[in-house]
Amino acid sequence: MIGEAVELDVRTARLPSRALGFALDALIMLALLFAVLLVTELLGAEVDDALTAAVGLAITVGVFVGYPLLWETLTRGRSPGKYAMGLRVVRTDGGPIVFRHALARALAGFIVDFGLLSFFTGVIGIVVSASTARGQRIGDLLAGTIVVRERLPRTGLPGLPPPDPRLAAWAQRCELADLPDDLALAARQFLVRAGQLAPPMRAQLGGRLAADVAARVAPPPPPGTPPEAYLLAVLGERRRRETARLGGSPWGGAPGSGPAAPYGSAPNPGPAPAPARAVASPWHGTGAGTPPPSPTPWSAAPVESPAPSGSSEPSSGFAPPG
């Protein structure tokens, strides 16, 4: 799962790319091991053979366990080999790994996957990784991790249009901690299938989901924001923050990297204008100089359905929290 509570939309790493990354790491570890053993041999020329063997074993374990442990802990899942191949180790819920995850992977890799039990051939790790749906070796299964491609989409939420840039400044100020994963998942599933719904049902579901999300997200959205644009902005900001937390490049730029005018505001923001001179949202079809629509009845989804005759309520029933 990732920030908006859907299954990982980044690609899990394929076995060939993981093998190449591991091969690069293995070459570095072998070079490091050779250098350390050579220095130890030169410094301890007069030491008996038993002590030399014990020291050599300790150094071997330290290199093959300590190398991935330190790299994956300090870089949150990237060793030099994984960095070269554009890979990263993450938790199965999409979050960054910590020391305990890296330790479980390093120990299992040395003992089972690539080391002692597989006679340093890596056959166990290869077979298990090829047999699991997400390419997990035994170390991943024990640690609860997967290896994914770090190249994230730069155009927004996969399968959905990018969030409206006019909502970017508002979205960056939002508090999203209280938004539950199941509600975010329902919102994303609605947005993916919105084009397949009949207009009345689309307006009703969009308004209901947007009202539920708005009850858990602060501050309230700008007046006149359609429910679907609001949901896209919230889920997009959630994904942007998750991507930034994982060290990726969210949608081609850092937050606040460009001048993002508030939704429905004038092109050149200045002191707050009087309500009578405010520029209305272009999505409502009103011209400049028209007062903005009331913040209570939000418009329905972009595809609106006329309300039944005699009804004074908007078709979506969506209103922002007070």
From TrEMBL:
<protein>
    <submittedName>
        <fullName>Putative RDD family membrane protein YckC</fullName>
    </submittedName>
</protein>
<keyword id="KW-0472">Membrane</keyword>
<keyword id="KW-0812">Transmembrane</keyword>
<dbReference type="GO" id="GO:0016020">
    <property type="term" value="C:membrane"/>
</dbReference>
<keyword id="KW-1133">Transmembrane helix</keyword>
<feature type="region of interest" description="Disordered">
    <location>
        <begin position="242"/>
        <end position="322"/>
    </location>
</feature>
<dbReference type="Pfam" id="PF06271">
    <property type="entry name" value="RDD"/>
</dbReference>
<feature type="compositionally biased region" description="Low complexity">
    <location>
        <begin position="257"/>
        <end position="267"/>
    </location>
</feature>
<feature type="transmembrane region" description="Helical">
    <location>
        <begin position="106"/>
        <end position="128"/>
    </location>
</feature>
<feature type="domain" description="RDD">
    <location>
        <begin position="13"/>
        <end position="144"/>
    </location>
</feature>
<feature type="transmembrane region" description="Helical">
    <location>
        <begin position="20"/>
        <end position="39"/>
    </location>
</feature>
<feature type="compositionally biased region" description="Low complexity">
    <location>
        <begin position="297"/>
        <end position="322"/>
    </location>
</feature>
<feature type="transmembrane region" description="Helical">
    <location>
        <begin position="51"/>
        <end position="70"/>
    </location>
</feature>
<dbReference type="InterPro" id="IPR010432">
    <property type="entry name" value="RDD"/>
</dbReference>
